[in-house]
Specification:
heterodimer; A: alpha+beta; Alpha-Beta Plaits; 2 domains; four-stranded antiparallel beta sheet; 7 helices; 9 strands; 41% helix; elongated; B: mainly alpha; 6 helices; 50% helix
C-alpha cells in the first residue's frame, strides 16, 4: 500500500484530532509517522486518486488542522510515496533542511490575496484621469461610435491605460500589505486577476495584516480583493520565495 | 465591492474563496522528488492560464465599446465640457443603476472633482468622501 503524504511537522507536534479523515472515498484514516525530530502526516493512498474537489478539500483540511497545532510544511496535493519507509527515509535524509524550514515558519500562516478590477469602475477611473482618452471617447461617441480605426485606437489606448492601472494598483496593494507581513511570495500571473500574492503573516499580528487589507479596500474602491487565510504556508515551504515569482512584476524583497 | 470573508482554519471553510485556496493546494506546497505525484490530467478546477496577449484587436474593440457604453450611460447631448461629463457619469453611477462597486468608484471621481466644481448637484454635495458604506442609506433618507 503506498502512502499519501500531507505534510511534515516536528515530532513534538501535538497531533491531530481523533478520527481525522484524509483523501479517498471512503476517506482514509490520517496517521503520523515519526523519524527522529520530524514527523510526517500521512494516510494510505487510495487507488486511482484524482484531483477532485473533495480530495483537494480533504488535503487542505488535514493541513489546516495540523497547522493549528504547530508548524507544518504542507505538501503539494497528490504526493504519494511507495511506502512509509520511503517517507521516513526522506525525513532522515533532509532532516536539517526541514527542521530549518519548520523553525522559520513557526507561528506563521499564509494569507493569499488576489485582486481584480471592477471593469466599469476602473474604466471610470482611467477616463477621469486621462483627458486625452476622454476627448477621444467623446469624439467617437459624437460620430456615432467612430470608425473601425477610431475604435481600435480608442480601445488600444484604454487597454494601455487599464494595464498601467493594474500595475500601479498591484504595486500599491503590495506596498500597503507588505509591512504587515514577514515574507511575500508572488504567485503566477493569469488573466483571472491583476495580482496574486501570498503573504506570510505571524499569527500574533494577523489582525494588523487584516487591518491593512481593509485599508487597501478603502483606498482602492475600484479593486476587488479576495483574501484567503489563515492557510498553511504553501507558498513558503522553500527558503527563497523569489523562485515563485514567474514574471518581472514583483521585485522580490523579503522584509527580513 | 465583493467582500470575501477570511476563511477560518480548522473548519475547512465555506465555498467562498474555495477556488482561490485550491489553486494553492494544487500549485504550491512542498514537492519531494522521491514521491510520485498523482496525475492532474483532466482537472477542471484549475484554470490558470498564462496571461494571454491582452493586446488583441478583439480586446481593443471590446474596450472601445465599453467606453462608449460608459459615456452613453451618462446620457448626454449637452456640451462635452469636461467637468460636465464627469458630473453626469457620477450622477448615473450614484443613482444606483449599477453595482455597488461602480457607485463607489463614481463617488471617488466625484470627490476628486468636487474641489474644482463646488457648485455641483445637491446629491453630490451631500455625499462625503471616506464614508462610502453608509452613503446609500443616507442618500435614501435625504430623498425623503
Amino acid at each position: 500500500m503506498s502512502t499519501y503524504v500531507y505534510g511534515i511537522t516536528d515530532s513534538s507536534h501535538t497531533g491531530l484530532p481523533e478520527g481525522m479523515e484524509g483523501v479517498g472515498d471512503p476517506p482514509a484514516a490520517v496517521r503520523v509517522i515519526k523519524e527522529g525530530d520530524l514527523a510526517a502526516v500521512v494516510s494510505d493512498a487510495p487507488e486511482g486518486l484524482k484531483p477532485k474537489r473533495k480530495h483537494l478539500l480533504a488535503h487542505q483540511n488535514v493541513l489546516a488542522e495540523a497547522g493549528a497545532a504547530g508548524a507544518v510544511l504542507p505538501m503539494r496535493f497528490g504526493s504519494v510515496a511507495p511506502d512509509d519507509d520511503t517517507v521516513t527515509g526522506v525525513l532522515a535524509e533532509r532532516s536539517d533542511h526541514y527542521k530549518e524550514r519548520l523553525r522559520a515558519l513557526e507561528g506563521k500562516v499564509e494569507y493569499n490575496v488576489k485582486a481584480t478590477h471592477d471593469e466599469e469602475a476602473v474604466l471610470h477611473r482611467v477616463m477621469s484621469e486621462n483627458p486625452e482618452l476622454r476627448a477621444l471617447a467623446e469624439a467617437n461617441r459624437q460620430s456615432g461610435g467612430g470608425s473601425y480605426d477610431d475604435k481600435l485606437r480608442l480601445g488600444e489606448m484604454v487597454v494601455g491605460a487599464v494595464k498601467a492601472q493594474e500595475g500601479e494598483d498591484a504595486a500599491e496593494l503590495r506596498r500597503i500589505l507588505e509591512p504587515a507581513a514577514a515574507d511575500v511570495s508572488v504567485g503566477p500571473e493569469s488573466t483571472g486577476w491583476l495580482t496574486n500574492v501570498s503573504f506570510l503573516v505571524d499569527r500574533k499580528t494577523a489582525e494588523d495584516f487584516l487591518a491593512a487589507v481593509e485599508e487597501a479596500r478603502r483606498s482602492h474602491p475600484h479593486v476587488e480583493l479576495r483574501v484567503n487565510g489563515p492557510l498553511p504556508p504553501y507558498s513558503f515551504v522553500e527558503p527563497d520565495p523569489s523562485q515563485h515569482a514567474e514574471s518581472g512584476v514583483g521585485q522580490e524583497t523579503a522584509l527580513e | 465591492m465583493t467582500v470575501v470573508p477570511a476563511q477560518q482554519s480548522g473548519g475547512g471553510g465555506g465555498s467562498s474563496g474555495l477556488y482561490d485556496v485550491l489553486e494553492l493546494v494544487l500549485d504550491r506546497g512542498l514537492v519531494i522528488d522521491a514521491f510520485i505525484r498523482v496525475s492532474l490530467v483532466g482537472i477542471e478546477i484549475l484554470k490558470i492560464d498564462v496571461r494571454v496577449v491582452v493586446a488583441s484587436v478583439d480586446t481593443y474593440l471590446r474596450f472601445a465599446e465599453a467606453c462608449n457604453r460608459l459615456d452613453l450611460e451618462s446620457g448626454s447631448n449637452k456640451s462635452p465640457g469636461l467637468p460636465e461629463i464627469v458630473g453626469e457619469v457620477t450622477e448615473s453611477g450614484a443613482r444606483g443603476k449599477s453595482k455597488g462597486a461602480l457607485s463607489g468608484a463614481a463617488e471617488t471621481i466625484s470627490d476628486a472633482f468636487k474641489q474644482s466644481r463646488e457648485e455641483g448637484r445637491e446629491k453630490e454635495t451631500e455625499s462625503r468622501p471616506r464614508a462610502r458604506k453608509s452613503t446609500a442609506s443616507r442618500r435614501k433618507e435625504e430623498q425623503e
